[in-house]
Amino acid sequence: MKPLVWLLLCALCLPSPPALAQAPQRVNRCTNAQGETVFTDRRCDAVGATSRLPPRTASVGNTGIYRAGCARRLSELTGQIRDAVSAQDVNRLSSIYLWSNVSNATANQIIGRLESVVQRPLIDIAPVYPDSTPVWVDPTLAAAGAVEAPSRPRPVGLRIEQTLGSTATPARTVFGLRRQYGCFWITL
Hints:
- The chain is α+β, with helices and mostly antiparallel strands.
- The protein is about 25% helix and about 20% strand.
- A four-stranded antiparallel β-sheet has the order 4-5-6-7, with helices on one face. A three-stranded antiparallel β-sheet has the order 2-1-3, with no helix packed on it.
- Strand 1 and strand 2 form a beta hairpin.
């Protein structure tokens, strides 16, 4: 064979270099039937999975788009906040906000703040108690009924601990708590 033909045949047998003009591959995060996370460059339904779903909650009420009820316990409210942040769904978070007596301009500012909350990774949700001086009571006197032990105060807010993006920089949001219509609601 001639050297030029030999070179051309060898060049055709070599793997081709990656094309620079190709669009980057998109990686899809899917959930299979067993609830495991699957990463793929194909569509989720092509590998027998579905698009990533927010974690299921055991609470009654907020089971998806349709809300059958409101948060009657504080644990339900914190679960709804966690689910909204996990799904990065500002509409879900705004559904537990107490919107009464809020003007349009203020509502736009609130939605902006709620949007930034759902975009950050969640670390913790903790109750905020009213500022008061703790009263020390002798436990033996309280047990004997000589004095009344002070009752535990009810929380007045929820502190949302997050980080800014993929950094370790802490971010904190404090939601006020309101109880109205027999339900718990958040406020800013």
